[in-house]
Design goal:
Layout: H1 9-25, H2 33-38, E1 42-46, H3 52-68, E2 76-80, H4 88-104, E3 111-116, E4 141-146, H5 147-156, H6 162-180, H7 191-194
Parallel strand pairs: 1-2
Antiparallel strand pairs: 2-4, 3-4
């Protein structure tokens, strides 16, 4: 049996854009996403890091680039890493290290990092619970967000009800409705490449 073809960066970014357009914006899971997506202010970048250490290097570079670039050009960045942390438990164990990079770069309070994964599972949920899909993307991803942009968005749209509304939206949509969106998770990275 032959291995499936390795997707190109363009294919990976297209899958992520499809997820943002159909799920994040289409289902209004994040009411702030549409404006920056429409204006082309979301940076999609594919990391070729084969290890968690290499991914941290890429993360540091993307944090520096985001900090140095006006928000009118890049409001936020999706750092997609298809070759590493394909297993969700490894991904979860890695997340404290991303916050350590943020702290070392002295960007706490300026940038925050959200995380998405094809196997994302909230602590008190079942693996097949639709609520998990609020954080399920086709590829493991670190989302770098400007705190100032979040603050402006929150003024226009209070966030305290978003999580509950998203769960209600997904429950009404159902698994069949989600499947119709055509969002496919990527296969996990090789185990030897996943360990944090």
């Amino acid at each position: 049996m032959s291995e499936p073809p390795i997707p190109s960066d363009a294919d990976i970014i297209a899958a992520m854009r499809h997820w943002v357009d159909k799920a994040v914006i289409g289902l209004n899971l994040c009411p702030f996403a549409k404006a920056v997506q429409v204006k082309g202010q979301v940076r999609y970048v594919v990391s070729h890091a084969p290890t968690a250490e290499a991914l941290l290097t890429d993360l540091k570079a993307e944090l520096e680039l985001l900090q140095a670039t006006p928000p009118e050009q890049i409001d936020n960045t999706l750092l997609i890493h298809p070759k590493v942390l394909g297993e969700f438990l490894d991904f979860q164990a890695f997340l404290p290290r991303t916050n350590a990079v943020l702290k070392k770069a002295r960007l706490v309070g300026e940038i925050q990092i959200a995380s998405f994964h094809p196997q994302y599972q909230f602590a008190d949920s079942e693996p097949d619970a639709l609520s998990n899909y609020t954080n399920r993307a086709p590829y493991p991803t670190q989302h770098l967000l400007r705190e100032a942009s979040i603050a402006r968005a929150v003024e226009a749209y209070p966030t305290d009800t978003i999580y509950e509304r998203n769960i209600e939206t997904l429950d009404q949509l159902g698994q069949a409705g989600w499947d119709k969106l055509g969002i496919r998770p990527a296969p996990p990275a090789e185990p030897s490449q996943s360990a944090p």
